[in-house]
Amino acid sequence: MLLCFFLYGLIFLLTACTVTPTPGTPTTIVPTLMPTPTPDASTSSGWRTLRTGIAFRQLEAPGLPVQVVRIDPAHVRFVVGYDPTSPLTLSAWVARYGAVAAINGGFFDQQGEPVALLISNQQVFGYSYVDQGGMFAIDEQGKPHLWSLADQPYDGTPFVQAIQGWPLLVRTNGEAAYTDDDGQRARRSAIALDRNGYVLLIVAPGATFSLAEWSQFLASADLDIEIAVNLDGGSSSGLIAQSDQGGVRVDSFTPLPFALLILEL
C-alpha cells in the first residue's frame, strides 16, 4: 500500500513538471520592445515618462503596436550621426554616442550617401528635395523646425543638424497628406511636431501600413500632430529610447549610414 501511494505521488510530480509547447508559437523574429514603466500618475493619456524631457507611448494598430517617443527639445540636444563608410545598426549608433533616444533617418543609396539633403554638425551633404517631402532641422539655438518642402523650399539657411524625408504624411492643418495607395505594406518610420512644440519619433515595427495608410493613421491618431514626414522604412526602421525605468527598443534590421540621435544636455 505504501508503495502504491509512493508511485502515485511520483507520477503526479512528473506530470506537474511537464511543459507542453504552445501550439502556433511564432518562429519569426519580431522587434524587441523593452518593458515600459508605470504610467504617470498625473496623466491618463498613456504617456510614460522615461527621463526628463522624454516620454513614451504605444498606439494600438493591426499587428504590433505603433511606438511613439515624445521629446521636449528644451531638455535634450539633437545630433545627426553620419558615417557612410561604416554604417551601424541603430542600437550601435546609440552606443557610439551614448544617446538616450534615436530614430533612423531618411533614404540613402548603395554607397551610404543620402538621396536628399543631410546636415551633420553644420556639414552639408547631398541636395534638397524639390517640391516634395519635408525637412527636419535644428537651428543654432537648438530649436527644432519641420516643414513641407513643397510649401517652403529649402533656401540654404544654415542649420546645425538636418534630415529630409519623403513623403509628407500630415499637413499643418492636421490632414493626411499622402493618398496614393499602392498597397505595399512595410515597417514605417516618421518624425513629427505636435502643437505643443514637442518632437515625436514614431515607428510601426510590423509590416502593417502602406504609405497612404500610414499617412491616414497618423493624421487621425490622438497625438495632436501639427506636421509629420515619412522616414526610411522597411529594414531601416528603428526607434530606441532608454532609461533605467524601461523604454522601447526597435532596432533596425540593416546598418544605417546616418541616424537622428537625442543626447542629454
Describe the 3D structure.
- 12% of the residues lie in helices and 34% in strands.
- It has one domain.
- The protein contains 3 helices and 17 strands.
- It is mainly beta and 265 residues long.
- Strands 1-2-3-13-12-14-11 form a 7-stranded antiparallel beta sheet, with helices on one face. A 5-stranded antiparallel beta sheet has the order 4-17-5-15-16, covered by helices on one side.
- Residues 1-44 have low confidence and may be disordered.
- The longest helix has 15 residues, at 2-16.
- It starts with a helix and ends with a strand.
- It is globular, with a radius of gyration of 22 Å.
CA-CA gap between termini? 75 Å
Helix/strand order, N-terminal first: HEEEEHEEEEEEEEEHEEEE
Radius of gyration: 22 Å
Global morphology: globular
Largest sheet: 7 strands, antiparallel
Provide the number of structural domains: 1
Number of strands: 17
Output the number of helix runs: 3
Percent of sequence in beta strands: 25-35%
Q: Give the low-pLDDT segments.
A: 1-44
* Share of helical residues: 10-25%
| Class of secondary structure makeup | mainly beta
Summarize the structure.
The chain has helices at 2-16, 90-97, 211-220, and strands at residues 48-51, 54-59, 66-71, 76-82, 101-104, 118-120, 123-125, 134-138, 144-148, 161-165, 168-170, 186-194, 199-209, 225-231, 239-241, 248-250, 258-264.
